[in-house]
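Continuing from the previous page of notes. For each protein in this section, the sequence appears first, followed by its C-alpha cells. Read the first protein now.
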Amino acid sequence: MNTPLLIFNDNGIYCQQADVYIDAWKPVEKCIITHGHADHSRWGHKKYITHHNNVPIIKHRLGEIEVSGKEWGETFTINGVTFSLHPAGHIIASSQVRVSYQGEVWVFTGDFKTEEDGIAEPFELVKCHTFITECTFGLPAFKWTPQAEVFKQINRWWESNQAEGKTSVLFGYSLGKAQRLLKHLNPEIGRIYTHGAIENMTQVVRDNYSMPPTTRITRETTKEELKGTMVLAPPSAHGGTWIRRMVPYVTASA
C-alpha cells in the first residue's frame, strides 16, 4: 500500500479507508476502544466498538453510549477493512486491534503487558506487517521483581501490620490495578475493605471475573472494624479526610 493503513491526526489514530478511529482523544463518529482507562476511552464519540467485557466498564464510566461488543478474534468489516480484537494483557478486557486491508495487516496494541497476572486475558502475539505499540516501560532500565514475589511481599506486609494492630491501606487505580490486587490478596488473613470508587468498579466487572469478597467503607464503618484489615483505595484518597478514620494505619502504593 502506498497510503499507510493507520495514520495519526489531530483526533488520534485513524483508518482513513474505514473512516474509523482507535482510542481517539477527541469526539469522532466511530471509535474502537482498546480498554477502559480514561486516556483511551473518552466521552463524546457517536459510536463505540470494544470487547464485550469492556462494554459495562465504559458504560459505567461514560454513561449511556451507543456501543457494540465483540468477541476475541471476531472479525468485522467496515468499508472493506477487516478488524478484530485480541487480548492485550494490560487490564481486564484490554484489546489489541488488528486491521487488515488488501493483504496488509497492521496491529495497534494500546497498553499491553506480556506477563500473565491471573485476571487479565493473556497477551496474544498477533502476526502483522506493521506494529504500533505503546511502550511506557520499554527501556532496559526498567526491571521488575516477579509479580509472584511482589504479592507475597504485600500479603506479608499485611500480616505484619495486622500483628501490630494497624490497618493496611494499599493505593491503586480503581480499574485494573485494584482488581489485580484483589485477585492475589489472601482473604484468609482478614477482611478486605474498599473505597467507594474501587467497590463500584469491582461490582461492575464481577459478572465476568472471579474475585474475593469485599466490603465497601461507608460512613457507618468504624475504626475498630478496620483495625488489622486491608483497605484498597485510589491514589486520590491519600491524605484526605476519608483516611483519617483508619488511624493507626500504614500505607503503600501498587
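Done with the first. The second protein uses the same format. Note its length before scrolling.
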Amino acid sequence: MASMRDAMKRLEIIYTECAPEAIEEKNTDASLDEFSRIRKKLHADVKSVRQALKERQDVMRGGCTTTESAEASYKIRVMIKTLKEQTARMQEIVDKEGRKKRPKDPALVAEHKEILELCKQHVDECENLEKRRQADGYAADRIELFSGGGNNTNGGDGVSGAGHGDNDDHNDPFTHSDLPDIDVEEDLKAIKNRNKDINQDLENIGVGVAKLKEIALDMGQELENQNQNLDNLDHKVEGALDHVDNINITMKKTLDGVMKGDKFMVNCILLCVVLALVAFISTQFMH
C-alpha cells in the first residue's frame, strides 16, 4: 500500500504534467537545443536532490526506522545517478563541439564548457552530502553500540549541527550552496512569476482598498444626510417650542382678562348690597 507521501508526490507529478504552466514550459523547451534542455532539467533535479536530502535529514531526526532511512537513501542515490547521466550526456555534446575545427560560435562552446564544469561541481556536492551522511551515520551507529545503546543526541541526522539553532536556509548545507546557480534564467523566471503573483495580490488589495474607500465615502454621505435631518428636526422642535410659548402667553393674557371681569362683577354685587342696606336703614328711620 502506497504511503501518503508517495501519493502526494504522484499528485504533484500529475499536476506538473497537466498544468497550463507545464504545457507552456514544454512549448518553451521545444525551442531549446539539447544542451540547454539538459541544463534546465539538471538545474531542477539538483534542487530536488537537495530537498530530498533535507527531507531525509528531518525524518531521521524524528526517529525513523532503518527501513525508511534505507529507502530514502536509495531514492537519493538513484536521483544522483540520473544527475551523473545528464552530465555525461552534456560532456558528449561539449566533446562533439570541441572536435569541430571551425565551430559556428566559439564563445558558446566555451560557455558550454563552463556550464558543464559547474554542473559537475553541483553533482559532486550532492554526492558528497550523501556520502557524508553515510559515513557520519556509520560513526553514529558505532558510538551508540559502544556506549551501550544510549540516546543519540543528534537523532542520527548524520550532519553534525546542521540546521540546529538557526533556521536560516543560508546555513543549511542541503538547501544552500556557495556554487552559482546552474540556470540563472530559470531562477529569474521563477522570481518573475512570484513578482507577477505579488503584483496580482497588490492589484486585488488595491481593488479592495478602492471598495473600502467607496464604502467610507457612502458612510460619510449618509452621516451628512443624517446630520442634516437632525438639524431640520432641531429647527422644527424650536418652532414647536416657540408656538407653545406663544400659546402660553395668549392663555395668560386671556386668563388675566377673565380675572378682571370677575372682579368688576363682584364689585357691582357688593355695591348693590351696600345700596340695599342703605335703603333699608333709611326706611326704618323714616317710620
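What the second structure shows: Helices lie at 4-18, 20-30, 34-61, 66-98, 106-146, 184-286. Confidence is low (pLDDT under 50) at residues 138-166. We return to this in next week's lecture.
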